[in-house]
Amino acid sequence: MSRPQVTLKLATSLDGKIALSNGQSEWVTGEKARAQGRLFRGAHDAICIGANTAVLDNPQLTTREGDLPNPMRVIFDSHARLSPDSNLAQTAKDVPVVLFCETGQDTGKDALALTALGVQIIGLPKLETGLDIIAALSGLWRLGVETLLLEGGGQLAASFMKAGVIDRIEWFRAPIILGGDGRDAIGSLGLKTMQSVGRLSRVSIQEIGDDIWETYA
Ligand SMILES: NC(=O)c1ccc[n+]([C@@H]2O[C@H](COP(=O)([O-])OP(=O)(O)OC[C@H]3O[C@@H](n4cnc5c(N)ncnc54)[C@H](OP(=O)(O)O)[C@@H]3O)[C@@H](O)[C@H]2O)c1
């Protein structure tokens, strides 16, 4: 199957958390790491996030730099929960937004309101863990997306990992500890034996401001 190359970008605490239990995550890493994150956006054809991140953070997912291109924004949102008032929907006419939802939810009232704002809604089969990642990737490939930046959250990152479609990880680690009640960088993987744990290969490690930036293949 032809699919985009996928880079997972993570901004975590030392203990591997991406947000507090209430969903607050602004900001985990420092300004320099966040600026690098925006450069990553400009270097990819599309960025994707899960529905929880879209609802809790109300992000724009733009590069915010005049000379950097803004990639397509993609949301995995089974029930089309994205609000028509959200930053993503309100800017969909300027920077494309694709919303993957469960087949059948793409013609509901909320979906029609989003479509009127310029959001492209695509129905997908829903599996036990959520929307079918492989079908989504092949749909994005057909839309011309060759490189995809996966920005989380943890549940969506886990689904991509289970599907075996993450090619690279850019991991920014901040000198903070959010504790066991924080939200995990990677959701449940259902691993049962240590033999089944994949070992990554570290490509580089460097300081960026107060944070550490590691790249894994
Ligand atoms: N520090 C960082 O780098 C960073 C980055 C991103 C997010 N965050 C934080 O992460 C938190 C949200 O993360 P999260 O793990 O709770 O949620 P998430 O991964 O953002 O969203 C999960 C939701 O996406 C939908 N979904 C659709 N298909 C899916 C699939 N195949 N696999 C997984 N999910 C799928 C599901 O909702 P439906 O059933 O409604 O479709 C699921 O509940 C927020 O607090 C945000 O601030 C931090």
Describe the structure.
The protein is of the alpha/beta class and 217 residues long. The protein has one domain: 3-Layer(aba) Sandwich (Dihydrofolate Reductase, subunit A), CATH 3.40.430. Helices cover 24% and strands 28% of the residues. The chain contains 6 helices and 13 strands. It has helices at 31-42, 51-57, 87-90, 109-116, 133-142, 154-163, and strands at residues 5-12, 17-19, 46-50, 72-76, 97-102, 120-124, 126-127, 130-131, 147-150, 168-173, 183-184, 202-208, 211-216. The strands form 3 sheets. The chain has a 9-stranded mixed β-sheet with strand order 6-5-4-3-9-1-10-13-12. It is globular and about 45 Å long. The mean pLDDT is 95. The protein binds NADP nicotinamide-adenine-dinucleotide phosphate. NADP nicotinamide-adenine-dinucleotide phosphate (NAP) binds at residues 10-11, 18-19, 23, 25, 28, 49-53, 56-57, 76-79, 81, 129-131, 133, 151-156, 159, 183, 187.
For the structure shown, list the relevant keywords.
217 residues, alpha/beta, Dihydrofolate Reductase, subunit A, globular, binds NADP nicotinamide-adenine-dinucleotide phosphate
Gyration radius over CA: 17 Å
Beta-strand residue fraction:
25-35%
| Contiguous runs where pLDDT drops below 50 for at least 5 residues | none
Strand order of the largest sheet: 6-5-4-3-9-1-10-13-12
Identify the quaternary structure here: single chain
Q: Would you tell me the overall average pLDDT?
A: 95
SSE run: EEHEHEHEHEEEHEHEEEE
Number of helices: 6
Number of strands: 13
General shape = globular
CATH architecture: 3-Layer(aba) Sandwich
Q: The CATH topology is what?
A: Dihydrofolate Reductase, subunit A
What is the CA–CA distance across the termini? 20 Å
What is the name of the CATH class? Alpha Beta
* Total domains: 1
Structural class: alpha/beta
- Major sheet details: 9 strands, mixed
Name of the CATH homologous superfamily = Dihydrofolate Reductase, subunit A
Q: What bound compounds does this protein have?
A: NADP nicotinamide-adenine-dinucleotide phosphate
Q: What share of residues is helical?
A: 10-25%
